[in-house]
Amino acid sequence: MPELPEVEIWARRLGTVLKGAEVESALAPGVVTMKTYDPPISALAGHTIEGTRRFAKMLCVDFSDDLSLLVHLMHGGRVRVFDKRASLRDKAARILIRLSDGRELRLVEFGTQQRAWGKLLPADEVVNDEMVATLGPEALPPPPVEQLADLVRLPRHMHSLLRDQRVIAGIGRSWVDEILWESMLSPFKRGADLDDDGVQRLHDAIGSTLQGALDHYEEVIPPDVVPDKPPMPLKVHNKQGEACPRCGTKLEAVFFRDYVTTYCPEDQTGGQILKDRRLSKLLK
Ligand SMILES: [Zn+2]
User: Fold this and answer.
1) Distance, CA 240 to ligand 1 centroid (Å)?
2) CA 20 to 30 Å from 25, out of 13, 142, 157, 187?
3) 268 CA distance to ligand 1 middle (Å)
């Protein structure tokens, strides 16, 4: 699932390439995609794209006359800009916004599930939408150390805490591994057990990891290109079996049904190799 740095670079690049474009027509062939019905997506016709915003892992496209399309890509959703229009038989198309200049902004979704969604809202109501209003503070820049301490000192494990968008917004399954590895914290350490030094390391790692990813994207993705898939500069996530880039120890992993958490036993768990079943239980 795209996380804060990926959605941020999409928002920036989409803003650059789409600003000022006029909508010719808009439709949502994915029947469950639109979560709002009034105004309908077709009401975007004639409006101009004014810019883009990001809320946690959600993308927001702002149109003239105070209309905003809030989009959650979920796991398999991607936003793309095409020079030609999609066939309506494109099974992956969820939202099609046809522009007067011939281009098309398309929300596509891969996989069999239809989970990506959009909401067409008055611009000033986006912040009141339940998915936005319930977000914790944005992870970038990270909240001040004292605030972060208050947020994470809960009797829950770091791996689930950091991915809880109501605790801190923008981190998911990939970047959580990188942040915990950077801060040398175990994925199953309880937030409540973090000492001041641990909170400081976590704070610094959230900032450096997410900003580092964003800086990488700014460097490798041309300013006028909307990437299909930003090249994630991951060091440990999903690299189990490889050597830890810091100490050379073999990276270990705990496998869940549809994802994996990777860690360095030397740096993060005091040499302990986590038993899959035990950690799975703990992290649920
Ligand atoms: Zn290591």
Assistant:
1) 12
2) 13
3) 8
Judge if pTM exceeds 0.90: yes
For ligand 1, the distance from its centroid to the CA atom of residue 79, given in whole angstroms, is: 36
DSSP state letter for 171: -
Distance CA(18)–CA(34), nearest Å, equals 21
For residue 257, the CA-to-ligand 1 centroid distance in Å is: 25
| 58 Cα to the center of ligand 1, angstroms | 33
- 247 CA to centre of ligand 1 in angstroms: 4
Q: Which two tokens stand for residue 258?
A: 């549809």
Measure 255 CA to ligand 1 centroid, in angstroms. 19
Mean pLDDT of the chain: 94
Peptide bond between residue 155 and the one before it cis (omega within 30 degrees of 0)? no
Residue reference for tokens 């641990």: 198
Q: Checking phi first, is residue 165 left (phi over 0); if not, alpha (psi -120 to 50) or beta?
A: alpha
Q: pLDDT tens for residues 174-214?
A: 999 999 999 999 999 999 999 999 999 999 999 999 999 99
Q: pLDDT tier at 276 (50, 70, 90 boundaries)?
A: low
Instruction: Name which of 112, 125, 237 is nearest 187 in CA terms.
Output: 237
Pick from 277, 142, 127, 133: nearest CA to 204: 142
Report which of residues 71 and 278 the model is more confident about: 71
**Using one digit for the tens of pLDDT, what is the confidence trace for 89-139?**
778 899 999 999 999 999 999 888 889 999 999 999 999 999 999 999 999
Rounded distance from Cα 176 to ligand 1 centre (Å): 16
Q: Cα(119) to centroid of ligand 1, in Å?
A: 43
Q: Which amino acid would we find at residue 15?
A: G
Residue 44, judged by CB atoms within 10 A of its CB (0-12, 13-18, 19+), counts as buried
